[in-house]
Amino acid sequence: MELVKLPRALAGAGYRWFRSNPRQVLLGGAIVSVASVALVSEALRLPAAILSATAFAGYALLQIYGNARRQVETELVRALYQNNPLPTFSKRVLRTIESNFIQKNRVFEADRLIGLYDCLDQIRPAWILKLARSLSIRGYYRVSKNYYSHLAKRPRYAKVATEVVTLQKRIDMIASNFKVSLPKAKIKPIQGRVLHVVKQTVLDKQAGYTIRTHKIARAQAELGVDVHVVGQYGFGNGIAEKVVDGVTYHSLANGRKVLHGSDMDWFNKNTKALAALAKELRPEYLHAASDFLNAAAANFAGRSLGIKVIYELRGFWEETFMSSFTSRFGNDVKPLDDEGNETLPDSYALRQASEAKWALASDYVLTLAPTMQERIESYGVPASRISLVPNAVDPEEFKPLVRDSAMVERLGLTKDHLIIGYVSSLSSYEGVDLLIEAVARLKRENPKKKLALVVVGGGKELPRLRELAAATKFSEIMLLGQVPHNEVTSYYSIIDIFVVPRLPYEVCHLVTPLKPYEAMAMGKTLVMSDVRALAAIAAESKAAVTFEAGNPDSLKDLLLELANNPKLRKQLGDRATKWVRKDRTWMQVAKVTVGVYAKLRKA
């Protein structure tokens, strides 16, 4: 019986593919036709003219077919953006929406056209599936869910209903639609004890986020605070409890290795486990750090136990999403609402609303920079409930070092090379591609100068950036990937000019990174793009110079000026070291947090 069904199933699959890929089928048919005519012509000794005529006919048919679609596409685009009347709905319009919009990932325009024509019932299932997936990837979860829901009602697509459930869970999470029930309990908090609630800790990985947590916690411990830290449920590397540098780390899974999740069931487990740990430890404060999930869990646990909550907002992850959105999809048109306004992805708008909600719910808010405080105040949090705790450095770990000549030699460079460097993660918004282009232009225009670029760090962008570097044909432009943590300072030692080339995305304008302070502490000449957050560092320290963000020629010209002025480089490096050691140490940051604890205690 199964063997009988198989040909029918194959035929059905072939038919569906035929309907979903008409141009490919037509092209394939034309090729097969030409090949067949060629074989027949050869066999029958017919003139080559027959072959040429057939080929021309097939090509002409393909062009006519494509031109008709392109003409309809042009009319549809003019209707969307120039207020021209919509073409009368027809089968050709329908197929154009499928092949010229959905197939080409012009999903926002496709969504708008489907709404204007009210033709969803006539769109073929394969195209609806593609449209739903594309919208979900772009963060438009609610619109995507509507398409999945429609598709789930069609024969043979019932399994798509699981996607509807998954998307709804994702929407509930980022919209803070939590339904957590915790019993009220009266505890007597231990004065001077704090529990930091974070995503991951140094037990899981060494990264800017975890290093910041540990450095602040260790400095607090040196100031006499009884410091405890816990990561989210599913993190902790299977360790129940461990003391590192006077800081006690805990696991919400009590040392069991459990899966970290991102749905409502996971959040409930995470929050209940946090409340249980807080009840056991009885901290005076729950000090949560980004993102809002930690602030939400801390607020639920804190309210149930009568513990005050501080939210340290370290970044705006919705802005990070938007920077990657633009990098991946370009400045594509966003979907329009009924009044013609562009709408933001759910992954942006809902997350931002959640950040605002839990910042307002917390007793106090800490953040990294004035640019970030402005955003938080726009949520409605008064300035009197906000303090700045900037990124900083450990002056004993990062200090001026003699250049590691062995490392220079290992990289194939010489003592005469001026080394431009970058040490950090390779995210799309960091602008390392712009740095590569600027250095390549500088080397092309100044072939006699011994210049090198050394980039240290890993990330998803690394393969693409290595391709860019290889395309420059300069072997002195090298991307080394991740290196052992204990070698980082050695790489810093060989760098003459440290560049932070962040691009002009909103996340870069708002959030200050950690790496500039490390470079400054090591006495490096610091060059940064003029996004607002970095320009503020340059203005306050008077120990860094800036170039126009996103402009490789501006960076190239500044690098050339510095390459020709070793005296200026030394002045900037000396000034940077002094400023960081005076104004940007973890101990100074910890003192601010301890001051906030005392302020809340009095309140």
TrEMBL record:
Q: Which InterPro entries match?
A: Glyco_trans_1 (IPR001296), Glyco_trans_4-like_N (IPR028098), Glycosyltransferase_grp1 (IPR050194)
- Classification via CDD domains: GT4_WbuB-like
Q: Name one GO molecular function term.
A: glycosyltransferase activity
Glycosyltransferase subfamily 4-like N-terminal domain span: 208-391
Ranges for domain Glycosyl transferase family come to: 410-579
Q: Name one Pfam family in it.
A: Glyco_trans_4_4
What this protein is called in its record is: Unannotated protein
Source taxonomy = unclassified sequences, metagenomes, ecological metagenomes
